[in-house]
Each structure stands twice: as structure tokens, then as C-alpha cells.
Amino acid sequence: EALRSLILTVAQHRGTPQDIEWAIDGEKLWLLQARPITTALRPSPVSDPVTAVFDNANIVESYPGWVSPLTFSFARYLYAGVYRSFLRLLGVSSATIKAHRPVLDNMLSRIDGRVYYNLLNWHRALALLPGYALNRGFMDTMMGVGEPLPDALLPKPPPRPRGWARLKAYGRIARVGLGLVWHTLVLRRTIRRFMARLERVLEGDPAAIDALPPSALVGDYRRIESELLGGWDAPLVNDLLCMVAFGLTGRLAERWAGAAGIALLNDTLIGQGDIISAEPAQRIRTLGRLVAGDPALLDALGRGDAEAIAANPELAAGIDAYLEKFGDRCAEELKLESIPLWQEPAPLYAAIRAAALIPPSVQAAPRNPTTALRTLLRGRPVKRWMLRRLLAWTKARVRDRENLRFERTRVFGRARRVFQSLGRQLHARALLDDPRDIFLLTLEEVLGAVEGSAVSHDLASLAAMRRGLATREVAAPDPAGRLLVTGMVAERAHRSANASPDRDVQARSGTGCSAGRVRGAARVVRDPHGATVSAGEILVARTTDPGWIALFANAAAIVVERGSPLSHSAIVARELGIPCVVGLAGATEWLADGDIIEVDGGSGHVSRVTGPDA
Questions:
Q1: 238 alpha-carbon distance from chain centroid
Q2: What are phi and psi of 296, to 5 degrees?
Q3: What are phi and psi of 543, to 5 degrees?
Q4: CA 303 distance to own-chain centroid
Q5: Which of 11, 123, 228, 264 is most buried, judging by how many CB atoms fall within 10 Å of its CB?
Q6: Gap between the Cα atoms of 185 and 103, Å rounded
Q7: Would you tell me the crossing angle of helices 132-143 and 119-126 to the nearest 10 degrees?
Q8: Greatest CA separation found in the chain?
Q9: Strand ordering across the sheet containing 482-486
Q10: Which residues touch 178 (CB under 8 Å, ≥6 apart)?
Q11: Which DSSP symbol is given to 339?
């Protein structure tokens, strides 16, 4: 501070910035020499008042923690193309879509190696559709954002048009609205066609990809991109309808029946039986019963002894069937750098072993939603009929949303395999020092190295530079879940540590998503790789994704820091009939392994009964 003051004083006295020489004698600062500065100074920056809001409340479920440059550039490209197609599908004009290209190209952001939604751009994209004032609240619910955006930051509605412009505006609203109605009516057909197209694109033996040369690998990627990117209609339309259905049904249920109405909505979504994301847990439980009581098999599963496992034909067949269908599912499955189960099945072995050690139990049957609805709205037949129809519609949209997300997993699994093979080919040609260095490159750099459009072909140097940066980013704590940045993101996005909750607080509340009350020991899992959950334990995590299903299979209840009622954690917990609370910020810091806690999945209330040493 003394030196800074001296520099400014000398510059003010001489009238220009100065080079100075100085010394410290004990505690005394001496000025030895001063002369006009000889190097060019940077110009004063122009103030930039624009504010951006970045939030990862929803996307952290798909892309938790550090995300590689390849995964981010791949996801960012897909989001831009898919949502452009979505707007076109709903009748938004090509001119309007073109004018909003900067918005659609920047739906995702990467800050300190973590992926965020550019939240203002999501609202700007949604504002292109009619009914934005209503839907913006529903979008916040689906995305699970911790707090709504201030009105001052939200897109402003255009001035009220007059005359001919007014007629044109109403025509646009009608066109988009009718488009949405039409796609609602033909949704089942759209889903069937989407599934047929997907199966055609992904047909063939995936293992054959490993033998393809680089040009053929890029060709396979380009084929998937061209045939699916512009035809991602079914998941997008269903997601929008799911957002509206869940928001509208929840709002009316609460208005007409209070908290019991919200509980009714959650009860309705329990035990649908045809949500594919619950199937892995069911298969793991079945395989666990198969090996229960067999010490040799349990030991083989614990050691990951593939030969001993293969010696039991029934178990081996069950595992092979699981991997054939769910081999691309793994923790952080949408990150291309993640290692899928078909390459490393040890987490599956551990889950089967844990399931075998859990004694069979009889779960309480959920409330009958039909009976509850009749009781709640007795004497109001019109409202009862309306809510029953809305509940059925919401249930179907939630089911289809989760099932279609599994198809996204398959597409990302195919892309992962293509890029893994490209990494091996680039390493074999001495263009990369390690095959997995491909994940340190961007999509444009990888494809450009083969197709000739890359700015630099020194891929090894690029990867080495980013490896050092990645090491620092991975070691650093996660930034806050929401960042408000004024001006340039590169200049202003300073790391903001999440505040640690008070450990002395005995009870806290999140969002209840699956009814039921359970008391048990907390099992805090920060990294699902190699983690297990024992009988009666309550899984506590920052966030989860479909790859955590092996831990779900054995959990008595689930508590998650992030997420919404439509997050994967909530949907699968309801399907499995276990209590679930999401949105309990700081849960992994507030609770410790072994804490005895009580979870109320209906109210969202979580209380700590005793600590691990009590």
C-alpha cells in the first residue's frame, strides 16, 4: 500500500506515469529515482454495463463438475442446432430465428471448467413463443433455479402493435399456437417416427467403429449430426409440453387443494412401471437376489473377478443383458470423457453385491390418486374432472420425457465411441501424446484436423496447454450455482465459493418430490465411482444423474442439493417408491457420513437426529 501510494504521488507530481526505483530500509520506504515511463501503457478500458446471469441448477445434473472442452463444444453445438429446429417446428419464422442467432448459439457457457445455462438467453428464446409471461414461471420450475430472475433483467415484451402490424402479430401468435396444438395432437406419432429414425441411424455393431479410419469416423459423426440434429422433434416438443403440464397442474392442484394437491401430484407420478430409468435399479435388485447367500459370488463381485462371474451362467447372462441395454449409462454419462459401463463394469458389480446384502422388505403401497382426488374435490365435479385429465396428461409427459432422455444417452454413447477411436488414431499418428488428450480439444479442432479446416494442426501442444489449465480447474472448488457478471465474462467471472451451511442447525427444508418418511444413517457421496450404499442408508449428494442408478437401487431415501421436481433424481425416486428431497442447498456440507437423519419426502423436511459419534 505504501509503494502504491508513492507511485501515484510521484506520477501526480511529475504530471505523467513514472518508472521508479525504490528500496526498503527496515520499515522505511525510500524513493531512489524517477523518470517518465518508457513502455506503452494499455488504453483505459471502455466500461461495459451489460449484465449476464449464469445458473447451473438444472444442467449440473447432466454436466456436474469439470467438463472437458470437447464435451462442452459438442453440447453447445447441439443445443444451438436443436433449439433452432425446435423454433422452426413451432412456426417461428426463419427471419426471426436468424435474427436471434447470437442467443441460440450461446445457450450454454463454460466458466472455470463448469457448464452453466446462460439464463437470460433461455428466457430470450422462450420469449419468441406466445404465452411467455405464463411459461417463464413454469420454465423456472422445470429448471429448478433457486430464485427467479429479477423482472428488470427479463426480456421486455415488444410495444403493442397497431393497425396492420397488430393483425400480423396476432397471426404470428395464432400460427405458433396452432403449431403447438398440432404437435400435441400428433405427439405419439412423432415419438414413433423419432424412435424409428434413431434406430436406423444407430444400427450396426458399435464395436465395428473401433476399426474405422479417421475419415470414416468423422463421416459417421457427420451422419449422426445431419440425420438427428435437425430431427430432434419428439424430445423437444415433449419437454415443452411437460414443462407446461407440470407447471399448470401443480398450480391448479395447489390452488384447489392446497399442500394436499401437490402431494397428490407427486403420488400420481409414483410407480408408472414404464419409465426406463427405473429399470436398471429393478434389474440390479433381481441380480442381487440371484447371488444372495453365495459367499463365493459375492466375493467375486467385490473383487471384480470377471472369470469367476462368468462361471455362473445365469449371473453372467443377466450382466450381459444389462450391459447390452444400459452399457452407455455411467456416472456423468453425457460427458464424453466419462468411461461407460461396457468398458468398466466394476460399478455394476459393486451395486449387485450391495443389493444382495440388503434384506428383502415390503414397501408400503402408495396412496391411490383416484381415491385421494375424489376426497379432495368432493362436491366439485368439474374441477375434479379437469384435474384428473391434467394429472393423466402430466404423468404421460413425465414418462416420455425420461424415456426420451435415455435415447439421448445412446446418441452421446455413440459419439463417445467415435471420439475415443479418433483419439487412438491421432495418438497412433503422433498427433496426440495420449489417446484421451482428444477430450482436451474442441469439436472444431478434432473435426478440422481430419477435414482440413483446423486453424492449428499442433494438437499435442494445444492439449498440453489445456491439461495444465484443467489440473488447476479440477483442483479448485466449484463456483457458486448462480453467477451475475457485468461486462466481459473472461474479466469478471471470479470464483465465488458456495457458503457452507451451519452444521449446528438440526433441521432444514428442500423440495419434497416423493412422499414417505424414513429414518436412517446418511451416506454422503461426492463421487459415485466405487461408492456403495448399504441397507437402510440415505443417499446424500450434490447432484445425481442416470449413472447413479446403481446407488439408487439400495438407498432408503435420497437427499440432493440441486434439482427440481422434474429432475432425474425425483422421477426415478418416485418410480422406485422411495422418499426424495431435492434443492436442499449445502446438504453434503451440513450432513456427515453416519449422521442419523429423518427425511420427509412429502414436505421436503430433513432433520438430523444424532451425529455419527452420538
A1: 18
A2: -65, -45
A3: -155, 160
A4: 32
A5: 264
A6: 29
A7: 140
A8: 93
A9: 108-111, 114-118, 51-55, 482-486
A10: 91
A11: P
Q: Show the cell assigned to 582.
A: 431435492
Q: Please report, as a single letter, which amino acid is at residue 490.
A: A
Q: Is the dihedral of CA 304, 305, 307, 311 positive or negative?
A: negative
Q: Quote the DSSP letter at residue 502.
A: P
Q: What is the pLDDT of residue 595?
A: 94
**Separation of alpha carbons 120 and 117, rounded Å:** 9
Within 10 A of 155 (CB to CB), how many other CB atoms are there? 17
d(CA 341, CA 587): 28
Q: Which residue in 268, 553, 436, 593 sits closest to 544, CA to CA?
A: 553
Q: What's the chain's Rg over C-alpha atoms?
A: 28
Give the DSSP letter of residue 497: B
Using CA atoms, how far residue 610 sits from 502, 521, 581, 589, in Å, is 15, 9, 19, 16
For the record, the C-alpha cell of 308 comes out as 469367476
- Residue 51: which H helix or E strand, with range? strand 51-55
Helix segments in 116-258, DSSP class H: 119-126, 132-143, 163-185, 187-202, 214-228, 233-257
Q: How would you classify the pairing of strands 596-600 and 517-525?
A: antiparallel
Residue 605 bridge partners (DSSP):
509, 600
The C-alpha cell that represents 14 in the structure block: 511529475
Q: Three-class SS of residue 28? A: strand
| C-alpha triplet 14, 37, 44: angle, nearest 5° | 90
Give the predicted TM-score (pTM) of the model: 0.80
- Fill in the DSSP letter of residue 292: T
Q: Which residues 6+ apart lie within 8 Å of 395 measured at CB?
A: 268, 269, 272
Quote the DSSP letter at residue 312: S
Task: Report the C-alpha gap between 7 and 100 in whole angstroms.
Answer: 48
- Please name the residue that has the C-alpha cell 465395428: 208
- Selection from 350, 344, 310 nearest residue 329 by Cα: 344
Q: Strands 538-541, 517-525: parallel, antiparallel or unpaired by DSSP?
A: parallel
Q: Distance between CA 264 and CA 261 in Å, rounded?
A: 5
pLDDT value at position 495?
45
Compute the Cα dihedral for 406, 411, 412, 413 and give only its sign: positive
Least Cα distance to 228 among 419, 83, 418, 82 occurs for 82
Are residues 358 and 555 in contact, defined by beta-carbon separation less than 8 angstroms? no
Mean pLDDT, 10 residues at a time, the chain of 614 residues:
93 92 93 91 86 86 92 94 85 89 94 93 82 59 64 67 71 75 90 93 88 95 85 87 86 87 78 74 89 91 90 94 91 91 89 80 57 83 90 89 89 94 97 97 96 93 95 89 87 53 82 90 88 87 81 88 80 83 91 94 91 59
DSSP for residue 539: E
**How many whole angstroms separate alpha carbon 25 and alpha carbon 126?**
64
Half-sphere exposure of 276 (CA within 13 A, CB side): 16
Q: For the chain, first and last CA: distance in Å?
A: 50
